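Final report, Chapter 2: Outcomes

The project's central promise was a pipeline that accepts a single protein chain and returns its three-dimensional structure in a standardized token representation, suitable for archiving and comparison. That pipeline is now operational. To close this chapter, we reproduce one record exactly as it appears in the project archive, with the input sequence first and the structure output second.
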Amino acid sequence: MAKYKTTYHNQTGFTLIELLVAVSILAIVAVLGSHGLDSIVRARATLNRDLEQTRGMQLSFAQLQSDCEHAAVNTDLNGRAVLAIEPTRLTIVRSVMADNQPTGLQVISYRINNGVLQRSESPATRDLRQLDKYYRTILGDTDKTIQAVNLQTGITGMAIQTWFSDGQQRVINGEISISPTAQPGAAPGPPQSVPTGLQVALQIQGREGSMVKNFLLGAI
């Protein structure tokens, strides 16, 4: 009779304790990974928000630069103010040039309203009495036909300094006349002193410091 030899192989595997340890380690790694991913997502969202805010500020400053370059400092306004600077508002009288049209005058206002930087502009006119009307209505917000355009949100403050042709730098609250014979209440300064530039600093919510830019007045 043939004899058969039986061979036994030792079979090894994970014990229940080893499986539990492995599952616990994987769970810890998964939790740590999720926290890391969440931090990356939050950082990316914050970066995108900051980039969008910076882009909006650049566009706002570009528009303000255009308005300042066309400021009517070299135009005879018969003693009228070319600038009005208040804690939350900057108003500029600028020249408007269109193809095949005579040069007109326009009142531009930058205002912080409930944390939003807004820009308003009046129709262009060559009539100084009409310009006075636009000036008063924009400063008083009484003309509902002049719609404000929102430029940037999250603005908590605005600080403006003004340079004059005598080389002096001043912080002004009030109207600045371009006339040497300024009316009472106009910005102080020696005769023939006219504004030549502005420094505008905008405070952004949640950021330390301000975004600052200098502008020449009447450069064009």
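Archive annotation: Helices lie at 16-69, 128-140.
This record, like all others produced under the grant, will remain available to the consortium after the project formally closes.
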